[in-house]
Design a protein that fits this description.
The complex is a heterodimer of chains A (328) and B (234). Chain A is 41% helix and 12% strand. Chain A is α/β, with parallel strands linked by helices and 328 residues long. Chain A has one domain: Metal-dependent hydrolases (TIM Barrel). An 8-stranded parallel sheet of chain A has the order 1-2-3-4-5-6-7-8. In chain A, helix 6 packs parallel to helix 7 and helix 10 packs across helix 11. Chain A is globular, with a radius of gyration of 19 Å. Chain A starts with 6 loop residues before the first helix and ends in a 23-residue tail after the last helix. About 5% of the residues of chain A have low confidence. In chain B, helix 2 packs antiparallel against helix 3 and helix 12 runs antiparallel to helix 13. Chain B has 234 residues and is mainly α. The two termini of chain B are 32 Å apart. Chain B has 2 domains: 132 residues, no CATH class; 99 residues. The chains are: A alpha/beta (328), B mainly alpha (234). The interface between A and B is medium-sized, with 27 and 30 residues.
């Protein structure tokens, strides 16, 4: 989940730009275990596929605008297992999701109660690989209540949990999130603690949880820092994601970080663990990930390819040259 | 006004069961039968939703193996209906839907609608493919129209291909929308049941406009469109 970006910080000073060269990472494949595709365009899907992203997980989150009725949640969850999954398949990317009530909207208790009632209808659907993203934002009593209830649900359903850790008061919020997960009887290996930084990672790993890092400009991790984290802690139980959403973010965060890691001398084996394998190992505990599907979906059926009337309108080539000024 | 009467439906039910028995593992078949017993007994839809969602994990997504004789039986009982390329989870889901008690119309319709409301992509495909098999066929007309508005190509195909429901029950305007959408999304219209039988002046007029529009835009026109328009004005 994103936050309010600081404009001054964002625009401060000139950045040295280094261009992503796809040749640096050719042959590598990536798994982005946290990206909000609902907020992204088809250009992003195309670029992600080109850069080697073969599968992704879209966690249910706050849409930027508070929802006022439970039906909005039903429709959102349905779109994650329906339309968005189809959209992704048209670009040869296997789409999974996690389903949950996000921390911000847990504060609307009347609505939260109703959302809790519909969650069981969605968590057993095909391709739902966990409960998420759930956890703390403001760290209110209501957030804690629905966090605990959803941990119970995950335990009952034997599904992994994807935890969003708060932006503010992060260190304590992360500790508290883990404490509560243990209190509710979850095994650390079933919990992916997301949005880590240099201050939180050690404890998360020491306690046996998965540590996910979000490469997201200005507010979360930069990838140069990420390289240092991997150098210091090694690749075990560490995974990176883009958490790309409606804010200034980057759906190519994983391939870019892989390129940077390679340039920084991190071994290909370790890069693969951090950018692909660990996320699969963690979320495949749901029993819902079959790597064969990554290949099958590349073999895009033409009937699917031209199926939609809004993405790939009849007659157009599915692949368009973005550099051409001609649009036919 | 039925596509298939109670007796025909019973026979079809038997054919599907036989195919399932030949394709599902004994454990999966047993699991499904146990679940159906629970589903038939419940007032609510909890077991129904759980079983419907879980089926691919139990049944697998292999393509079914079907005998020619079975294909013929199906096509005789329900002309136009063809399940040869179905996956095992899809057939299991559709067969499960056929076991729902339908004595109480309101409850029956409510249960099926609740499945539609929370359906993922493959569930939608199964639900729309089963349109000709539901009791109270006129209850599903607006649902079918809604499905034609879908952007998910495979869902459109579940309604358009080898499915005799739309031609039988859709109003002229809804039918015309289906045909136009099929052309617009470049579907294989030869698989649409009733395409030639339901051709009408309003459809032809719109298709002729569509041809002009395509030509004006320097785009190609599918030959099947001409076949349809010429059928009306030879």
């Amino acid at each position: 989940m994103c936050c309010n970006e600081n404009f001054e910080e964002r625009n401060k000073g000139e950045k040295i730009t280094t261009v992503l060269d796809l040749n640096d990472i050719s042959g590598m494949k990536f798994f982005d275990p946290h990206v909000h595709m609902t907020s992204r365009t088809t250009d992003d899907y195309q670029a992600m596929a080109d850069a080697g992203i073969v599968a992704l997980i879209e966690p249910a989150f706050w849409l930027g605008q508070p929802r006022t009725g439970v039906d909005s949640f039903t429709d959102y969850y349905s779109s994650l297992i329906g339309w968005e999954r189809f959209r992704s398949s048209q670009f040869g990317i296997k789409h999974y999701c996690t389903i949950g009530l996000n921390s911000r909207e847990a504060n609307n208790e009347k609505l939260a109660e109703q959302v809790m009632e519909i969650l069981p209808q969605f968590i057993f659907k095909e391709g739902v690989v966990g409960i998420g993203e759930i956890g703390f934002d403001d760290q209110t009593a209501a957030e804690e209540k629905y966090y605990r209830l959803q941990l119970d649900l995950a335990k009952e359903a034997a599904l992994p949990v994807q935890i969003h850790t708060p932006h503010r008061d992060k260190k304590k919020g992360t500790q508290r999130s883990m404490d509560i997960a243990i209190e509710q009887g979850l095994a650390p290996h079933m919990v992916i603690v997301d949005h880590n930084n240099e201050e939180t990672v050690k404890e998360v790993l020491d306690r046996g949880f998965w540590a996910a890092f979000t490469i997201y400009p200005f507010t979360k991790m930069g990838n140069e820092r990420m390289v240092e984290v991997v150098k210091q802690y090694g690749p075990e139980r560490i995974m990176i994601n883009s958490a790309a959403d409606w804010g200034i973010s980057d759906p190519l965060a994983i391939p870019k970080t892989a390129a940077l890691m390679k340039r920084s001398g991190i071994s290909l084996k370790d890069i693969e663990l951090v950018t692909y394998r660990n996320a699969i190992t963690a979320f495949a505990q749901s029993g819902q990930i079959d790597e064969q599907d990554f290949i099958k979906i590349k073999d895009i059926d033409q009937s699917q390819k031209f199926a939609s009337n809004s993405i790939l309108r009849g007659g157009q080539q599915p692949r368009i040259d973005k550099n051409s000024i001609i649009i036919s | 006004m039925l596509l298939i009467d109670i007796n025909g439906l019973k026979k079809l039910n038997g054919v599907f069961l036989k195919i399932l028995q030949g394709n599902l593992s004994p454990e999966a078949m047993e699991w499904l039968l146990q679940k159906i017993a629970l589903i038939v007994a419940e007032d609510k839809s909890v077991q129904l939703h759980l079983c419907f969602a879980h089926l691919p994990r139990i049944a697998t997504k292999k393509t079914i193996e079907i005998q020619d004789q079975e294909t013929q039986q199906i096509s005789k009982l329900l002309p136009g209906f063809l399940i040869d390329n179905w996956t095992l989870d899809k057939l299991s889901r559709v067969w499960l839907l056929m076991q729902l008690p339908s004595d109480n119309r309101e409850t029956y319709v409510k249960k099926i609608n609740s499945l539609f409301a929370a359906a993922e992509m493959n569930e939608q495909i199964a639900l729309y493919s089963a349109l000709p098999l539901y009791t109270y066929p006129e209850e599903w007309i607006s649902r079918c129209e809604e499905g034609i508005r879908s952007n998910i190509g495979t869902v459109l195909e579940a309604i358009m291909y080898h499915n005799p429901y739309p031609a039988k029950f859709l109003s002229q305007s809804a039918w015309n929308q289906l045909v136009l959408k099929a052309f617009f999304t470049e579907k294989d219209v030869s698989l649409i049941v009733g395409l030639n039988e339901r051709v009408n002046e309003a459809l032809i007029a719109t298709l002729e406009d569509y041809i002009q529009e395509r030509l004006a835009a320097n785009r190609t026109v599918a030959p099947e469109i001409y076949q349809l328009t010429q059928q009306m004005n030879p």
